[in-house]
Amino acid sequence: MKSLVYTQPNEVQLLDRPAPELQSEEVVLRIDAAGICGSDMHAYHGHDPRRKPGLVLGHEFAATIESSASSLWQAGQRVTGNPLITCGRCSYCLQGRDNLCSNRTMVGMSRPGAFAEKMSIPGRCLIALPDSMSSMAGALTEPAATALHAINLSMRSLVRPLPECRVLVIGGGAVGMLAALMLRHYGVDQLHVAEVNELRRASLQRHTQCVAFDPRAEQVQESAFDYVIDAVGSAVTRKLALHAVAPGSVVMHIGLQDWASEIDMRKLTLAEITLLGTYTYSMADLQATVKALSRGVFGDLSWVERRPLADGAQAFSDLHHGRTASAKIVLEPAL
Do 140 and 164 touch, CB atoms closer than 8 A? Predict the structure, then answer.
């Protein structure tokens, strides 16, 4: 089968790989659509030691079940799924916080991912897609669930209701775009998005009606926002987030571009800032996100770009060089 393989830093190649064999309690999927995530780009750049050359990346997918050894699923069903393969036994899984599973592995990291014609996964990881939902929309479940999980977690810490807040999203990639769309759905009308890519700024303004600006050219006023989402996670954006957030307010940290950096601990302490980290989503979040996508919570998704899997190497290169306005490129083997 054709697979897009990470071969070395800044290179992926379309290669022939053996099709997955059906294992007990697993299913073999025929991939219909798979989105390129920021973490896939992180691996592409050689910055993720967990993802080594020779790996098929990709963990955002919509697919059709080709064969099943799971009592939960039958061939022909359309699904998306949780790329986190959790144990179901540890204290976090038993609490319903399976995203923190002590024994988790992951599709596209510890086993071959979705940038291929076929992929295998345990049946317990899957979620059915409505007949009315396109495969492209289904492939957005994973990043949209990341935004949903982060915003819902943040609302527990906000002093005032979310619609009253002045909100800054740092980063206009897929999670930043989806977060902005969800914030609009929740009633936020004071929404700013900091994004350095001019093409993406135009797309953000068109699809979310936010104030999109280049933080390199426009200085952010100190303590101007009640809620800040850092969807990049670099040393620069962490510094900007702490600078921009008002006393007594909340910073939600999602991105992981840099693994470590200094932050303004003095302001964090003296201004009683709540700094939250978030990791992915639970199965409940993914199920809620499928319903939200089917209801149009995230808009018409016309900002998403579809390309053939065979053009995957060019798609990675275009994202690397900032040559596309789209915050999300979805690869489709059948195109």
Answer: no
Q: Write down the architecture of domain 145-277 according to CATH.
A: 3-Layer(aba) Sandwich (3.40)
Q: Would residue 273 be called left, alpha or beta, if left means φ above 0 and alpha means ψ between -120 and 50 degrees?
A: beta
pLDDT at 17 over 90: yes
Looking at 137-146, 256-265, 286-295, which range is the least confident one?
Answer: 256-265
With 0-12 CB in 10 A as exposed, 13-18 as middle and 19+ as buried, what is 100?
Answer: middle
Structure token pair of residue 302:
């016309």
The CATH code belonging to domain 2-140+304-332 is 3.90.180.10
Burial status of residue 131 (CB atoms within 10 A of its CB: 0-12, 13-18, 19 or more): exposed
Burial (Cβ within 10 Å: 0-12, 13-18, ≥19) of residue 52:
exposed
Length of the chain: 335
- Whose structure tokens read 């620069």? 236
Q: Is the pTM of this model over 0.85?
A: yes
Q: Is the dihedral of CA 217, 223, 224, 230 positive or negative?
A: positive
| CA–CA dist 8, 126 (Å, integer) | 31
Domain ranges of the chain: 2-140+304-332, 145-277
* Strand pairing category for 84-85 and 11-16: unpaired
